Amino acid sequence: MGSVTGSVDLAGCEWLQYDYGAARMARGRPGLFTMWRYRELLPIPDGPVRYPVPIGGTPLLHAPALRQTLGTPYLWIKDETRNPSASNKDRATALVIEDGLRRGVETITTASTGNAAVATAFGAAAAGMRAVIFVSTDCLPEKLALMTQAGAWVFQVREGYAAAVDLSRAAARTFGWLDRNTGANPFTIEAKKTVAFEVWEQLGRRLPDVMIVPVGDGPTLVALDKGFTELVSCGLTTRQPRLIGVQAERCQPLVRAWLDEPTRPAELDPTATIADGIAVLRPAIGDAVLEVVRRDGGAMVSVTDDALLSAVATLAGRAGVGAEPAGAAALAGLEKAIEHDLINRTETIVLLVTGREVKAGQATYDPSRVTVVETLDEVERALTF
Amino acid sequence: MGSVTGSVDLAGCEWLQYDYGAARMARGRPGLFTMWRYRELLPIPDGPVRYPVPIGGTPLLHAPALRQTLGTPYLWIKDETRNPSASNKDRATALVIEDGLRRGVETITTASTGNAAVATAFGAAAAGMRAVIFVSTDCLPEKLALMTQAGAWVFQVREGYAAAVDLSRAAARTFGWLDRNTGANPFTIEAKKTVAFEVWEQLGRRLPDVMIVPVGDGPTLVALDKGFTELVSCGLTTRQPRLIGVQAERCQPLVRAWLDEPTRPAELDPTATIADGIAVLRPAIGDAVLEVVRRDGGAMVSVTDDALLSAVATLAGRAGVGAEPAGAAALAGLEKAIEHDLINRTETIVLLVTGREVKAGQATYDPSRVTVVETLDEVERALTF
Fold first, then answer.
1. Is the Cβ–Cβ distance between A300 and A271 less than 8 Å?
2. E runs forming strands in chain A
3. B213 neighbors B96 (Cβ within 8 angstroms)
4. For chain A, is the Cβ count within 10 Å smaller at the N or the C terminus?
5. DSSP bridge partners of B79
């Protein structure tokens, strides 16, 4: 029992007592495990890291109860919900901001309706930087509340998400802001590849056989491939794990392309699935996804909303991991992949759980920070006031 | 720029290239920083830790932008929202369950309406243990959804929270379950004291001058005192930091007792504040709180709901830390304490941010796991089916 010697009473409260002494305290410095551990393979110069919040170094869980339930004795969960804004988007945000802090850029922009926007708003706040987020006018008020709570400036674009991306990228070019848009900044992939390095190290410098990953725009999966490729380039391993990408049945452009089958309209409706985080009609780097999945001997699978909800419940109930539906897609994809003989239950399998939803302290957003715009001029005017 | 040598194109996606080689990879094992680091001062026997999720080792943030805003150059945030269920309750849950896993106990129970219940449900799920939670019938459906999502069994008690505690404790005694009720199990304080050890190590084996802490039932603050006391007992330091406890103005029994002033009914209404996590009418270990605050030269302060909301926004907007109102109480308390000359801005100050709200994947709970009960017999019958 450690070195317990007995107990005393403190105002009605039982205090255990130990055989005290300096030798009882942990020795050495506590370890710090963050993605900056891999900085020789990241595009940042020497010198201290300026980003003020630890990012990455998320747990690789052995999930004993889930292993038993699924009959998968070598299953692991890479739990990216343990990042500061509860998703893997924090990695990309941190690297883009680190670069900006070193170059003296004071504003970061992105278009997003979900976790990337929240990660950008919170990450910029931590770094004392300004975040300018572009969203569609149909973005949910509770999402806006999270963004404005962190002090972000939000611009709503009536023409929808694609127009929001265009305006965000134009603003970055015109005003010299950091561009964190998915697929636009190679740093987002550089940051996310560190997940591959971590998994390899956490398995004792060994690779899994297969890794299963939710796919929306594509950078998360493509970045994993890049990380594993670089382990080969470094001479640290000779093969790469298979990557299996997962999309929602109602919005599965890359699964249909993978199968080389025609796509019905009901399979291309981003608003028809609960997996909003991966519901992307025209994936920003879809071609790269297909190429790396093919190269790695992997596959693309689609899953129903029911399977996603069931995966959310199973992750919570058998692994104690809280995930949003898109974040739990890897588990739903595992079951589909086993059904289709794409995976053998006794392989070493890693599920990437990408995110969970967090709540804003309040339900409403700060209207003084949210403006409907059509042009860059309007953006500039709104920010000047 | 790390060792970047150029870039190549992958299906329209820019891939940076590096001067690859085994020497580019991080060396040594990545550090793992969890509360088990302090196991010689925890009541668990030798042998491997069985609890399957890393707990503790949360960041101590230097929050540069917040320091600047507040004019507090040596301010730190101990960010307990980085625990798996996003609150410091995970520490107590993990230690209680670790003890149960070693003794072969398969059920854990607690009464709670908030973070402790969520931490217990998710922690038990991770460990493959059964969680039985007792709540008042007025517990919010979204909280129930989080508990049942993680597979917990929930019993609603019409007579309210105090009756729920009584029933949970009686069930633990009668059925031999683990009792995780606040103030009932000394292990909850043992687990939470590790926050003091971590802060001391993270400051380079030095103590802060003052630490500010939300206070509901009291264990979080009392446990910090115990941790700092044990550093003295171990001969590692000679003094203790002042502890300042924070309660909500509308429910501040311990602040009134501290000031030795009569309490008006409007100051004792747990339903009248947004800080539900610390709104406790009869704190379980209130006497211990008052004793340790006095001994450490600290104080108790109350804060308004407006101040709590403002603290939530400031933590998000200036530190990138998402907190629920009760979780942000330390920041609101800091401002009050500075006003009242309880703290000097140039002291080394640590704010304990205790939790943030997470969302269930769905808004509704599983009704098959929620039962209204009055007696232990009913509990037993419901669990047999």
1. no
2. 4-10, 13-18, 60-61, 75-79, 107-111, 130-136, 153-157, 178-179, 210-214, 242-248, 299-303, 349-353, 370-373
3. no
4. C
5. B353
> How far, in Å, CA of B114 to CA of B147, rounded?
10
CA distance A18 to A13: 16
Per-residue pLDDT of chain B (385 residues; tens, 9 = 90+): 677 899 988 888 888 999 998 998 888 888 889 999 999 999 998 899 999 999 999 999 999 999 999 999 999 999 999 999 999 999 999 999 999 999 999 999 999 878 899 999 999 999 999 999 999 898 888 889 999 999 999 999 999 888 999 999 999 999 999 999 987 889 999 999 999 999 999 999 999 999 999 999 999 999 999 999 999 999 999 999 999 999 999 999 999 999 999 989 999 998 899 998 899 989 999 999 999 999 999 999 999 999 999 999 999 999 999 999 999 999 999 999 999 999 999 999 999 999 998 887 666 899 999 999 999 999 999 998 6
The domain locations on chain B are 40-86+188-353, 106-176+360-384
Angle ∠(B361,B52,A69) on CA atoms, nearest 5: 60
CA gap A81, A63 in Å, rounded: 15
Option in A150, A230, A320 nearest B122 (CB): A320
| B174, burial (CB in 10 Å: exposed 0-12, middle 13-18, buried 19+) | exposed
Buried b or exposed e, range B295-327, using 16+ CB within 10 angstroms: ebebbbbbbebebbbbbbbbbbbbbbbbbbbbb
Is pLDDT above 70 for A126?
yes
Residues of chain B found within 8 Å of residue A149, distances taken between Cβ atoms: 312-313, 316-317, 322
Instruction: Kindly report the average pLDDT of chain A as a whole number.
Output: 94
> CATH assignment of A106-176+360-384?
3.40.50.1100
Rounded Cα distance, A242 and A248, in Å: 20
With respect to CATH, is domain A39-86+188-353 assigned 3.40.50.620?
A: no
Task: Please state which CATH number belongs to domain B40-86+188-353.
Answer: 3.40.50.1100
CB contact under 8 A, B358 and A358: yes
Q: What is the CA radius of gyration of chain A?
A: 22
| B40-86+188-353 and B106-176+360-384 in the same fold | yes
pLDDT in tens, B107-120: 999 998 788 999 99
Going through B230-296 in order, the beta strands assigned E by DSSP cover 242-248
Mind giving me the DSSP string for A53-97?
Answer: S------EE--HHHHHHHT-TTEEEEEGGGSTTSBTHHHHHHHHH
A–B interface: beta-carbon pairs under 8 A: 311
Measured CA to CA, the distance from residue A300 to residue A215 in angstroms comes to: 9
Put simply, the chain A residues between 325 and 364 with a CB less than 8 A from any chain B CB are 325, 328, 356-362
Closest C-alpha to B190, from B352, B42, B39, B78 = B42
d(CA A206, CA B147): 36
* Residue B326 vs residues A134, B135, B354: alpha-carbon distances, Å: 31, 19, 8
Asked whether the beta carbons of A282 and A229 are under 8 A apart, the reply is no
Q: Chain A partners of B12 at a C-beta cutoff of 8 Å?
A: 285, 287-288
Are residues A52 and B62, on separate chains, in Cβ contact within 8 Å?
Answer: yes
